[in-house]
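Technical note accompanying the year-one report. For the benefit of new consortium partners, we illustrate the data format agreed upon in the data management plan: each record pairs a sequence with a structure-token string. No post-processing was applied to the example shown here.
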Amino acid sequence: MRKIVKFIDAINEVIGKITSILVFVLLFVVVFEVVRRKVFNSPTMWAFELSYMLYAVMFLMGFGYTLKHKMHIGIDVIYSRLSKKTQGILELITFVIFFLPFTLVAIKSTWTFMLQSWQGLEHSQSPWAPPVYPFKTFMPIAFFFLLLQGISEAIKSFYKIKGEEIE
């Protein structure tokens, strides 16, 4: 079980680091567009659309990394006052009742959404009209890695109930 946790955590750590590089690509695209628009009075047809697609990929692929580092929104007012064992029990219960069903539904629905996009070779409706199906592929992938990280966190909760900690 510890090896599974370390493996999943390592995968999401690498994905998070690789995804963070997109910040620089996004920054370049936005600055390029601003300079073209404000300095040369010649906006591009593609920069805005590319910027929101890059941002979407960055946002999606950061799901698992964010969960691994416990950076999602949480309410610590009550949780922090509970014993480690009770925290672990609460984490497992919320994993089974909320997290697991949500991620499974998200994977299924985004998978269908992605397949429809690929089947129709969907393009955006803008004048640039880039293909959007490659970007929509990231949706089920991101939720899958979120699910994996959730499984890792659930295993950590199980160990917390037993009085052990995995980091």
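Partners are asked to follow this layout when depositing records. Residues 84-119 form the longest helix (36 residues).
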